[in-house]
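Worked problem 6 (solution included).
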Amino acid sequence: MLTRRLVHCSCSVVLVALPLVICANAKAAATATSPTTTGHHSAHHRSARIQESASTQKHINHLQHSHRVAVASTSATHHYSGSAHLRRASLTVHRRSYERFYASSFTDQDITQGDITAGEDPVVRQAAIAALGNMYGTVLAIDPSNGRILAMVNQKLALSSGAEPCSTIKVSVALAALEEGIITKDTPVNLGGSYHMNLTEALAHSNNLYFETLGRNLGFERVRHYANQFGLGELAGYNIPGEQLGVYPDQPLPADRGGVGRMCSFGESVSMTPLQLGALVSAIANGGTLYYLQHPTTPDEALSFQPRIKRTLDIRNLIPEIQDGMQAAVEYGTARSLKANFNQFPVMGKTGTCSNNGTRFGWFASYADTQYGRIVTVIFLEGGRPTFGPKAAELTGYFYKNLWDHSYFAQKQPTEQPPSVQAGEAAPATSTGVNQ
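Solution. The predicted structure is:
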């Protein structure tokens, strides 16, 4: 059970106040229900759909070319959806500018040099290497039923101190808002004027204004508390040599930098590692168990693998609320490039794109839902213009296709989840998941 701290910080922000519009029925139900056991409403609210910008469409149609457009505004700072296009506030002048990137998205070096692979699943590893190709990044594949790392390509990058999570932070924010009863997946949130959006659409299109609104309603203390519960700001692995710690700050961003709203839409000031994101998505995929991730280094370690539970998250009833949006991202949203390569079974995921000092980051975290089990994948890319979240989604499609072509999923049999154990202790050995 997640223990919640109901401490609110009064953080001033420069964003225009955008009220959270909740229909009377939903508001009444949320008031009558304890936040820890929030009831979810079956009524579906119609909401206006905000169309993606032309530059976002260009991102998807031309995956090798992307740019970041800055459009001045006189009143507010808005981070709109679709691979994290940034709309920055200025005083009076409307202009377009293009960010320069100095890092390369591609490499002719062997980025797998030094990887420890003897305890990995060779089929999964080769599928990941083939999917990544010559792009600079890392691929992490996890069995969510026990926390075993099946493959970790470019381990130096995967185990590094991480990077800004970009829009993948929205998964944590969505779970926090659902747990606190601020929204259900169908609650229409006003984004200004006649525009409203619910959680499914906001996740599908990665709408930043929606998550800024949620962040301001939650307040920094609750946002941080849930992020910590979901594993941000702490090591995700168990005795993995070289793993570094991502950072979750103790204070919100200053108001003139967007405050808690920007933290909840872009993850600015947060540093997240691929392992931390993989552990969180694994908990969503398995029903709420946050495992320590373990990376067997020898065949014997793989054979004698024992799961270790970090904590159990009380999110089982929230998972259906967030799954629809994660699947919608793949079906018609920011991650739909995945389907160009693979559509044999459902995939749930979240993209993220942002940049820092001339280097662009592209994230995509997902899990594939098959009758034989689930597999969680995180692809993190670093580079220039060709690096962004939808590109990571496209590569993930190649990865799943590679596994499919090698009959990887068909080889497995349905299995039960491992029994619960005390946090930090080893669970009984099982043959769970799709990785044994």
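Discussion: The two ends are 30 Å apart (CA to CA).
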